[in-house]
Write a structure and sequence with these properties.
Three copies of one chain form a homotrimer. By secondary structure, chain A is mostly helical. Chain A has a single domain, classed as NCX, central ion-binding region (A middle domain of Talin 1, Up-down Bundle), CATH 1.20.1420. Chain A contains twelve helices and two strands. A two-stranded antiparallel ribbon of chain A has the order 1-2. Chain A is globular. The two termini of chain A are 36 Å apart. In chain A, 58% of the residues are buried. At the A-C interface, α6 and α7 of A face α11 and α12 of C. Chains A, B, C: It is a multi-pass membrane protein. Chains A, B, C: The chain crosses the membrane at residues 26-44, 51-78, 84-113, 125-142, 154-176, 205-222, 242-264, 276-299, 305-326, 333-352. Chains A, B, C: It comes from Terrilactibacillus tamarindi. Chains A, B, C: InterPro entries: CaH_exchang (IPR004713), CAX-like (IPR004798), NaCa_Exmemb (IPR004837), NCX_ion-bd_dom_sf (IPR044880).
């Protein structure tokens, strides 16, 4: 697996840079950039994990939470700077849908083919359910409903206020899990997933920082190019910007996470798989999205926290579905199939839009 | 009970046929046809159950699932052929509302008058909750939201795609319950409901097939007549087509099921009662509705999977309510009263519409 | 605490009466009236509780349920008489939001600062969840969706029908809890909250009735004045009527309850705190709101059961959030923070509206 990502990176990075210099065709560059970013993202993930082990659980959790979505954040900020507001909103939607339905669905399905029932902590599931409801159902639906009755200016104030509150709650959630209630809910259920082995970091602290810095730099460089291929690619294939954001950018930005979640499910560590699927969605909703809103204050076009109705409905439906499937702390192949079916339905819907 | 249905049938069938020949008044024919179909439906139900016991649980489950809603499917296809699109959509809605709220409510209420608390498998309840969310909340809401933003052609493609996916998931669900996870979740809770006695079929296989074939034939014949009485009856009573579909057709199409669910609740076999109430709704949502969409491709008027907003809201609210009442695997008279109250509210709403 | 309310009352009542006589400025009178009512409400609450203990649990429960929201009901009826329809609807919304989010949130948060985990009966939580869904999600959403498709007259009939059904279900709920299923679900979970100590009433029956009668009389008098200050105050501060109703009236009408819920949470009697927070919301939704609809039949302007979309969405989101946080029968400071964050978000939204 690591070897595969190594090849993607070692071949992708130089080709991407050469290509951008030589002005290769947008479609070729789009594919090339996507592949390279997938490779680099795996390095960022591994570096973050090593750092997290070195620095201990509290700071490690914070690092994981912040850098876990660094690729998405970078692509989104660069797109925002380029004025591609719709693509950014769509990629947030796509990231959430992709993590909940595609990553979750594949994990449950693939894991379920090997094991009849897979279990994970009911407490984690409920904690996450509450946060999904708060971040997606409350914080995303609310400004959408109010914005149609507010002037633009008031919508902006509301978006900024909600974004600040969401980031605070996100930090509270980390504080809750890593400090005040660390281990409080443990052992309550037989979550053999959470046996914390003495983990050995893959890389030393210094090496991890260097890898993280270099790969982040390259991701930023290549994302810059990637963003500019969106429009010509969309035109060539007849895709909407929405579809590019929701399906393509979301898959590219999360490819490394996708792979590791499914691997964990296959190893019967369903707790970690669920944590990646739902946890990533929460990070995007509670951290990436509000940060983008706040960053956009300094950009020419402000990004209000108002998704289009189809985006909003798709996210809310996905949240309701995943909650109804996960609150029992028990998964099987059929639940995976239902999630994947929903992802396909939504993919078709957004393609037709 | 059986004797009562025997009388309905033996008197109803000849009168219905004579009446249609003699062109009796539409209102008389409407009542006559409804009563006859209720009688015949009970025969179809008994024949299917006998066949299911003879063929064993796997094929039996499939038979039950397919023929359980045969009457509704026949009435719906004939209405569709007659171009009564609204009546068909309304009868799907009514069937789902009727099963969840009326059958469920009466079962909980009547059973609850005799027993303080009635229990059923929590696992079944959660499995069904996931499917209700998938089929009604996701698959019905999604095309409605998208259709206002899509051209008719794209809405049709989306409806067909969703219908195919729903039927696949429906088959997967049968496969999951009858094959891969048969008995996996059993004994987990003290569901004394599910003690499988050695069941003896009422009729032999051959006799059951004959009864099934003959009664299906008559149902088809009489439904053909019934469909043509809708318009004149609606005019006479000042009812809307919506009301006829939602209340009348739904009650007629499900009368036999209603009776047996309540009987089971009264015998404290709440697991079976819930299975009938929620299971029937799921069959209508995941099998009858998508089959009608696919069948309508060959008819002059295509039936997209887009319900009216009142229909959609009523279904979604019912699903949310029944899930909130059943996830604890415990029912009582008060929960039944709440379901019945909701049915009455919705009935009044649709009557006024 | 009681001393504090004593001071509020002893100073507030004469000043309020003098002020109304001397025509002091509306803003001063608004503040004065609000403070006085908070003081009087605490006396009404204590009198009701004493009476409830004297009369025994069944009639006591009924008394508590009826007089628990007497202040709100009085303010609302007087506002309705003055034609302030929007303020009344907004105060219902505000009362529900305030109880669920502010009272619930503060209880969970304050209690959670002292105790790592606080528990309450899972059964109560689920019973309440079902009622919240029935009353707010079903009974409030349904007329809103239908009213846009109905003539005014039909909307009125629907509102009246739903109101009658809600009051019936409310009475059934009392009958269920106090008579048929009293204690049935007890001891099932380790709810040490519900240990019924032999309670001693603060006041004798006669004295309680006198206190209740006198304080109710004064509340009515002062509310009459309060209602007429709404318009000038709204103008002076640039607040909308919606904001006054949702935030100000709701806080004033529920101040005494707020205080006692938080006190109970701090004493680790989370069961009672939750009962106040969710129970009060249910009383407002299932009793106060429908009674107002029925009473308004005799007033010049009829009050249909149709909230504005922002009000409706805010209530539904709050219900979904509180259910997702309470169904596990376990609270902590973080869940409190999430509820408070949601209240702040909604407060900002309604302020901007």
């Amino acid at each position: 697996m690591n070897r595969f990502f190594f090849f993607l990176t070692i071949i992708g990075v130089p080709l991407s840079l050469i290509g951008s210099f030589m002005h290769w065709s947008p479609i070729l560059m789009f594919v090339l950039n996507c592949i390279t970013i997938i490779g680099l993202a795996s390095y960022m993930g591994r570096a973050t994990e090593s750092l997290a082990i070195v620095t201990g659980p509290s700071i490690g959790g914070l690092l994981n939470a912040t850098f876990g979505n660094a690729v998405e954040l970078i692509i989104a900020i660069l797109s925002l700077k380029a004025g591609l507001l719709n693509v950014v909103m769509a990629s947030i939607t796509g990231s959430i849908l992709g993590n909940l339905l595609l990553v979750g669905g594949l994990s449950f399905f693939v894991g379920g083919l090997k094991y009849k029932r897979q279990r994970f902590s009911v407490f984690e599931a409920r904690h996450n359910a509450g946060l999904l409801i708060f971040s997606i159902v409350v914080s995303f639906v609310f400004p959408d409903v109010f914005s149609t009755r507010l002037e633009d200016n008031a919508t902006h104030i509301l978006s900024i206020a909600i974004s600040i509150i969401m980031i605070l709650i996100y930090l509270f959630a980390l504080f809750f899990r890593l400090v005040t209630h660390r281990g409080v809910y443990k052992g309550q259920d037989d979550d053999h997933n959470h046996v914390e082995e003495d983990e050995v970091p893959e890389w030393s602290g210094v090496r991890a920082i260097i890898v993280l810095a270099v790969s982040t730099l390259f991701v930023a460089l290549i994302s810059e190019n990637l963003v500019h291929t969106f429009e010509p690619v969309a035109k060539s294939f007849g895709w909407s910007e929405l579809f590019i954001g929701i399906i393509i950018v979301a898959i590219v930005g999360n490819a490394a996470e996708h792979a590791s979640a499914i691997l964990m499910a296959y190893k019967n560590k369903m707790g970690i798989a669920v944590e990646i699927a739902i946890g990533s969605s929460l990070q995007v909703a509670m951290f990436v999205a509000p940060v983008l809103v706040l960053v956009s204050v300094f950009f020419p076009t402000f990004m209000p926290l108002t998704f289009t109705i189809p985006e909003l409905v798709a996210m809310v439906l996905s949240v309701v579905l995943i909650i109804s499937l996960t609150t029992d702390g028990d998964t099987n192949w059929f639940e995976g199939a239902v999630l994947l079916a929903t992802y396909i339905i939504m993919g078709i819907g957004f393609y037709l839009l």
